[in-house]
Amino acid sequence: MKIIDAHLHFFNAEGFKKTAREISQVNYCAQGLKDEFNKANVVAGVVMTTPARNLGDPCDLTLEDGTVDSLFYCVGVNPEELRKNREELANIERELKNTRATGLKIYAGYFPVYVYDPVYEPIYDLARKYKVPVAIHTGDTQTFNGLLKYSHPLTIDELAVTHPDINFIICHFGVPWVLDTAELLQKNPNVYADLSGLIAGNREVVLQTKDVRLFVELVQQGLVYAHSYEKILFGTDWPLVPIEPYVEFVKHVVPEQYHEDVFYNNALKVYPKLKKYVINDAG
């Protein structure tokens, strides 16, 4: 089965390198990601790029040893830069013209701004213009100074209702608020979710979590309540976890009859710019 990792990170930043060293023990380099893709049969990945790049700098999917040909990306949005610098919106639009740019990413919770704040309206205009989805961080933040009221998935309900012609992706399935996420999925036709970042740890931790009944049932409860497997995307949040054991974890929580959709088909639907590459090049 071919797999698309619809949520990972690939950026030359010390924070990701530290995560790889201390949490997941993955080989955080281009060759390391290539090896993991090959082992898990991942044919494409969507990188969530950082919103902290210098003003005007293009998104750079290159580490010290190079890049991976099958990577695409969502352009990270910094609301503070949008407010301070008139050029930032033009920079983001310039990025969206790149053939590898498949969407936009809002880091709710990391910035103290609700997703329906007017500062983001020009971003949603760009999403509409370029026909790309908007991925939104939800749930827990990796930093203690993140504010969870901004990253609660229910904030996306108003956004989905007022922007019915834009697709929104609830990243991390809204954990721990999985039932709220489930309600949004079944209520709003333009809301999707990815299963990235549900676990942070090495191979042993991932496989152990697979056997933690209450955690598995928490995720499954949300999936069953939503009953929207055509709107669920596989993602890892690499380098937070190694890819192959995380694939096994998601296979465990998602019923087998929905694997093709969750691991592959849904990403092509939500990120249509992937189709040309995956269908023509990956076979």
Categorize the overall geometry.
globular
Our Rg estimate from Cα atoms comes to 17 Å
Tally of contiguous helical segments:
13
Bin the strand percentage: 5-15%
How many strands appear in the DSSP assignment?
A: 8
What is the element string, with H for helices and E for strands?
EHHEEHHEHEHHEHEHHEHHH
Count of the separate structural domains? 1
Strand order of the largest sheet: 1-2-3-4-5-6-7-8
In round numbers, the mean pLDDT is 95
Quaternary structure of the protein: single chain
**How does the helix and strand content classify structurally?**
alpha/beta
Sequence-ordered SSE layout with sheet pairings:
Elements: E1 3-8, H1 14-24, H2 30-40, E2 42-48, E3 71-77, H3 79-84, H4 87-96, E4 101-106, H5 121-130, E5 134-136, H6 148-151, H7 155-162, E6 168-170, H8 178-187, E7 191-194, H9 203-209, H10 213-226, E8 232-233, H11 243-253, H12 259-270, H13 274-281
Parallel strand pairs: 1-2, 2-3, 3-4, 4-5, 5-6, 6-7, 7-8
